[in-house]
Task: structure prediction
Amino acid sequence: MRLEEELAKDAPSQDTFLTIGVFDGVHRGHQYLLDQLKGKAWEGGRMPGVVTFTHHPRKVLSPQSLLPFLITLEDRKRLLRELGIPLIVPLTFSKAMARLTARDFLQPLGQYLRMRGLVVGEDFALGRGREGDVSSLKRLAPELGFELVVVAPYLWQGQVVSSTAIRQALAQGEMRLVRDLLGRPFSLSGPVVEGRARGRELGFPTANLYLDPNQALPAYGVYATRAYVDGQTHPAVTNIGLRPTFGEKERTVEVHLLDFHGDLLGQELRIELLARLREERRFSDPQGLRSQIEKDIAQARELLAHAV
Result:
């Protein structure tokens, strides 16, 4: 069975305290729950671990309503490691897994991952038809030999922090609120691919970032950003949108690294979006766009010089 095969690959050498979830964004609410997890795990001499999924279960359960994801699986794992989680177990959610009862899903976690504790939020549920809610888990815990810890929702300035709230703020281009809810700047990462050289023709060469079509993006516009490549940080200006001046209809993410000279094609690039400078708009001619880009760069330099 695929579940057991995947669990066996990550079998730890000591007892564990786990949490389960997609953890899309690894936002402040997730970070709060992970802090509770680490505290409970280490005080009992157990390893904290996260059981997550390679893609959102909605991709299997309701593909027609699939939500765009906030971060890639690789970035999710990187952030979890940075937060002090040594055991990260990504599972492939499938139709077969969706049919498992809560007991059938949790029992192998005890067998292969040595789960002796489980930390969940108040609205947590798993198993066929979400039958494994908190009340069901309280009955299952003694039977399966693990301690259940239920964590209250985390509030940020009176608001429950959730991936949905972050997507909504992102769609409005409210990057300060996005940063507050995430606990860090929103970032995008991917390989640099061949573009149409529009930026180079204007005198502002850009790196065209390839992203999964299901990657969540902020409102179209121009952003002050930080770019990370080969361990180096560079100030940058990023345009996200459809390049209406040139009548194009394909969504693009174009990054102009300030004071950078070199070929980034094929390299992995990560950017942090700090502030939206303006909305994307159509200019009557390339010269008008060139003049506006110069203003964008000047504004971005000023903003980035004082950003923390």
Q: What stands out?
A: The radius of gyration is 22 Å. The chain has two domains: 2-160, 185-306. The chain is about 35% helix and 30% strand. The mean pLDDT is 91.
